[in-house]
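comment on this one:
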Amino acid sequence: MKILTDKVPLFDNNQNKTVYGSLLEIINHDYIVKTSLKWAKQRQDFKSKQLAAGLPFPEHSHWDWNEKTKSSSDYQTIFAIQYENDIQGLMLVDYATQLTKLPPDNGKSILYIDYIESAPHNQYEQPKRFKWVGVNLLHVAVQYSIDKMCEGRIGLHALPQAVDFYQNCGLTPIMKDPQHQNLLYFEFTQKQSQNFLSHNITIT
């Protein structure tokens, strides 16, 4: 585990103020296991409550970060946002296997976000514990894209429940991808990523 910065702004709804977490690059997979088990239980508990009430449940209730990350390649990197020794968000990115589809950058290298998630207590608790986790992880992805010579370009496939979030962040929807469960595919061009970084966006 490597701490990259301890200046990640998070809005703590319990304290009604901004606090600062740490950005981690996770090198040791064992660090993921405890978080994966905790989040899986929280998701399943919430899913059970929603089903009992006849309400929709999260589309990613089945996610298992342990499985998603234990076989990651040399071209993949795992980032985490942590506050008070508790993981608030996770993201797995790939910087060497994808090319852009969106003009005017089409055909150029792109950083692809394989998976990204804010902790369940930031999504399902009322009030949600922390805001700005997802936006901060997108900032990290854009900056890492620049570091890896992808010039800020990023791409990802969005679950339907997350589509509004990515559109509000300014990503461009391109197509529903039949090779990825017909999920809607989004990209940032170089120019769009620059605009994103230049604004202090706070999206719940």
Observations:
- The chain has a mean pLDDT of 91.
- Residues 16 and 84 are 17 Å apart (CA to CA).
- Residues 30-52 form the longest helix (23 residues).
